[in-house]
Task: structure prediction
Amino acid sequence: MRRVVEGSHAVSHAVDLARVRVISAYPITPQTHIVERLAELVADGVLDARFIRVESEHSAMAAVIGAASAGVRSFTASSSHGLALMHEMLHWAAGARLPIVMAEVNRAMGPGWNIWADQTDSLSQRDTGWLQFYCEDVQDVIDTILIAYRVAERVSLPVMVVLDAFFLSHTYEPADLPEHADVDEFLPPWEPVEVLDPAEPRAFNQLASPEFYMEFRHKMQQAMDEALAAYPEIDRAFAARFGRTHPLVEHIPAEDGARAPLALVTTGTITSTARAALAELRDRGTPVDLVKLRALRPFPQDEIRRVLGPYGRVAVIDRNLSFGYGGIFAQEIRAALSSLADRPVVYPFVAGLGGRDVTPDTVRAVVDRALDDEPPGDILWAGLKE
Amino acid sequence: MSPVTLRTSRDLPPTSRSLDTMEWNHTGSWRFLRPRYQDKVAPCAEACPAGEDIARVQMLLAQGAFDRAWLRIREENPFPGVCGRVCSHPCEAACNRGEFDAPVSINSLERFVADHARRQGLAPPPAEPADSGRHVAVVGAGPAGLTAAHFLRRAGHDVTVFDAREEPGGLLRYAIPAYRMPAEPLAWETGLVMSGGVRFQPGRRLGEDLGWDELSRFDAVLVAVGHWAPAPLGVDGEDLAVDGLALLEDVRRGRPPEVGGRVAVIGGGNTAVDVARTLLRLGAEPVVYYRRRLRDMPALPGEVAELREEGIEIQTLLAPARIAARDDGGLDLALTPMAVLDEDGGQRPRVVPSGHPEIAVAVSAVVTAIGARPSPGTPAAGLDPDGSEAVALHLRRIRPRGEWAERPPVFLAGDLVNQNRTVVAAIASGKEAAVVIDAALRDRALGDAWSAIRVGRKGAVSLNRLAGGDRAFRLDHVVRYDDLNTIYFQYLERKKRPRITLDERRTGFDEVHLRISASLALSEAERCFHCGQCDHCDNCYLFCPEVSVRRDPRAETRQIDYDYCKGCGVCVVECPRSAMVLEEEPR
Amino acid sequence: MPIDLPPSERMTSGHLACPGCGAAIAMRFVLKGLGDRVVMVIPACCWSIIAGPFPYTALKVPVLHTAFETGGAVASGIRAALDVKGDHETQVVTWAGDGGTFDIGLQSLSGAAERGEDILYVCYDNEAYMNTGVQGSGATPEGAWTTTTPTGSPKATRKKDIMQIMAAHAIPYAATASIAYPEDLVRKVQKAASIRGTKFLHIFATCPTGWKVPSEVSVGLARLAVQTRIFPLYEVEDGERYTINVEPKGYLVDAYFKAQGRFKHLTAEDLERIQERVDHGWSRLEALARIA
Result:
């Protein structure tokens, strides 16, 4: 069913389609529309689930950890400071191998207070053991939530589905809302291996000594590897049913069958802006290929090397910043490419922090600078006031 | 149970979760203190001259195991029916419950057990050891003699008891009034002694119908003929007075004297009280005259109280001065007012004439009860400190000198040697006699064993300990009030002993105290703290932080699993009755 | 009368508690009261260690070990999950120490209580952060030594009144209990289990190690806390109906304080002041019980 849906509500409806049974959330702008709609769906009996109206994000994550430990498909949503408050429990959820899915609306961290788009909040959670998928548009949001549950339950790790504040969370777009029956086929009920059960009393998450801790971490890494390996198959299954595909690395050449001198790597909603800007540039005779990166973790290193390796130059736009180094996706890409003997020059741009608009002009400026003979450097600011 | 073995990463679950319990972890290795079940000595048992295992008896009673309770008493004392009536019950004075609310009514419970046994016709198990081939003569069938005879017989000796009177029992049968010591329960218990194989020869008075030629044919002789000879009053007209013991014996023989009017009873001991209460029942109007104060009376306080309840007057600080016959057939009794001279040392105070004028009272008769002396025929050497030696607390042996060198060993027991001439002291004496004579006949020196067979090393002789029974394994520590964890005890009223009416008491010789009901006995026995005796209350089990106390639900046992016990000692402190100890862990 | 408790045993030997641990005794009693339809949540506390490391457990009930401040929230999540699975019978029980309850976990506990989650939250109170080595907590009593309130400057402020806090949430049932009164404790567990909604049990659990007392007095000291009125045993229903369950003998507090190394620096004046506070607290409690 094709409808015009707000990005936040797309999350809510996807959660309904996934037949989530326990939702726990605490409000934070710009996540509120997601949980408000979910509360309504539950209250109206549309979604047969419990909505736990907790007193903090920390408790929201703790509550879904409890629910998932009891073997029930669970969901939460947060953003920025809320996500930061959850941090401890993000580790716990992953270490406990719980397939929780969370919608995370990218918002800047204070101070000063800033409610607008910025990826530093989610990227700061890089090492918690969560999978992170970044969405470009409303359809992407719907589809990614469904795919996320399937991946999470396959490898027993939690997944963060990330969408930009306002640019996506509060934007209405037409999108296909799948039918329940189709989703049920794609995403059957979760069948957990072990749950809290009085009939089979076990302790979970107890002290793990140095004798065993490392093996448990090794198993988490193996699960990440498995997620990476299984993703294409899951994506194909999704495509087969719904006709849409969402590769972790999407290669969008300016001209079919040709390689442009520059590849531009983007994540989130900037990808849509870049699509428009690059189309215009191509039409003006400056072909630049676009690479949409969808995952921070597991990081698709092989795919990155395969797609970007042959380029002479790669520009990356990061709407985030690791202070003292630079844009975080650029770091990851540079690290992945470093194993290649012959590798492209990477231009790591930082743009759009704290909700500053990344416009087609910004994209064009980035392209110009990367194609000119600007020294590549470790951090290149785009759109910064002089 | 061994720890789970996880050799490879593949053996591990995806995340930290349990595969087994912690029971592989033997935390007993942490222990440096070791708790242990250890029964100790209850103060009542230590105080009991008969060495009865009182706290254990109360436990059996509270469990409704009346038969076993009776057998438990009889291990140490063949006369619970007697003691349950006439014992001075020092146990109750020692009872830790006295400090909490009121002592357990041990005496009435003993009576209950004995009456239960008699009603049920219980029989003690037969004496166990083979005949020793040795013969023992016991002269005097009072509590001391019969007790000795009973235990000597059970030790396998051939025992003959001689007594001047027709029936066994001594003063229990012929002095203590029937309202305190009825004939039937006594006869049943003496009958049990006899049915154990003790021979009884009545009508054999030492020195008259029984001579030393005959006694010398035995391998050992015990003389326990008691004190039946009246003590002289030492005043003019003494011959006009009646001997109290003789009066009591006449009554018990069914030959009550004709008495009436005001009768003076001289004395302050149990005999004086017995005489006065007997006279009342015979229709006289007795008045007790005592040279000291009420509080100084050696009679049992309970007996004195009952006497007063019955309306008998006691006049104190009056000593007889003279008795004179009157023309009307009555007597004039002159009494000297006395004053307390000093009051040191907790002893009965010395009294002297106060200087006030004499008092004269007109009475129909004067009965003396100022104490008695060894019965005629008692060997003088036995009473002579040079002619005999103390061989136990309540036992003397005539030194084998002169004529006694030719005779078998001769021992004296009961009132003849006891300072405290109570029935239970006589029983204590009889037990010591049995132990000593048995050892002598078997050429076994008791020596160091002597303290080991005494309850708590200082109390009475215990036959159970002598035989290596469970009491031999008790710690000799006597449990005091401060050793208890009294939080686990509730205040419970001491049950009153039911009695017949005052009218019935004044007019007849029915037993004053009624047998208590089984339900009353149960609830009174439940008051017992069971000091030092594990009664399986399970506090040790329940409070154990290690779940290391194992219970066998069928057998009455608790065991500490030292594989896990960390030695915290909580069980020892939470034991309400101090039936555990905490010791250094042996290394 | 012998103490009468359910025979079931869901704690095993071999656990890692210190000798005489009140928290171990408390756990045993609570499990006896709960029966077998239980899921337990254990946020960081001594019991995170006591229960044993991977791959073992000393508890024969399902246990979810979780982060320090999450007792109320994780239990809420499990409750929700069981409810949506149609299981309304299994009790969800949070088993937290005083730090995880009075301090870091107070927010999540308050949230669960405010939402009326159908859970039983048990705080075993040993009056400091014992697992980490005796640091002061909001439950540490006035005057106590801990490693972060050293003798030179013992804790100057009073113990937080967690019961008043919970009563203020108007939850259907809140009660104090003591390891020294197992029948009362088990009765309260059973009563709590029979009530729908948020139930709170505050159990006094001696820590011989942290309080510097010999292990064998563990239970006796807990009893003394009740008998001195320092830790009265009472229930609060719906935040307003107070019932005192054990009438204390009212011993002077000196006996309790002088028995413990953590209080050995206290002066006679200190004890006098504390006695006044205890007397006042007791009068207040009596007054509340009278109103009910």
